[in-house]
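Budget justification aside, the reviewers requested a transparent look at the raw inputs and outputs of the sequence design task funded under Objective 1. We therefore reproduce one unedited record. The lines immediately below are the structure tokens for a 148-residue chain.
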């Protein structure tokens, strides 16, 4: 979003981010151009099950606003998405009887801020998985929602 407050380098950066949005898969999900099962949604973020989970229940907290690097977020949005990450992680723990739910933030594959909620079922982190079908994703969503 471009505003009158942006100038110089910030304006250029803002413009480039706008240019990137049209090809961003998470922007398309946030804007409902790509359908997704939704676990939680508010004005700042969306939580969906990961379509390529390494472990059962893996989910993503995605900011509504496109930003590629989490450290560039407004501090209120930054704190908010981590609070949402905790709330959903505790529901995942209950829903799937995990050892714990880990959080991972890197954003290299999809350069749009997201926190990966990564359920661990033993004391190590499995990081690769297979594409999950819609029926299984719906089951995951319902099971987490029941535990919110
Ligand atoms: Zn985006």
């Amino acid at each position: 979003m471009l505003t009158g407050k942006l100038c110089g380098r910030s304006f250029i950066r803002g413009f480039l981010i706008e240019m990137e949005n049209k090809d961003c898969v998470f922007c398309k999900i946030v804007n409902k151009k790509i359908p997704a099962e939704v676990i939680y949604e508010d004005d700042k973020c969306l939580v969906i099950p990961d379509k390529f989970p390494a472990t059962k229940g893996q989910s993503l907290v995605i900011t509504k606003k496109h930003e590629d690097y989490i450290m560039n977020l407004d501090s209120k949005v930054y704190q908010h998405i981590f609070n949402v990450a905790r709330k959903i992680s505790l529901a995942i723990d209950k829903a799937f009887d995990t050892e714990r739910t880990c959080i991972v933030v890197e954003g290299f594959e999809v350069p749009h801020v997201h926190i990966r909620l990564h359920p661990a079922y033993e004391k190590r982190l499995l990081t690769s998985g297979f594409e999950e079908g819609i029926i299984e994703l719906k089951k995951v969503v319902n099971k987490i929602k029941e535990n919110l």
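The helical segments are 8-21, 25-30, 75-96, 134-146. The chain has one domain: 36-146. Computational costs for records of this kind are itemized in the attached budget.
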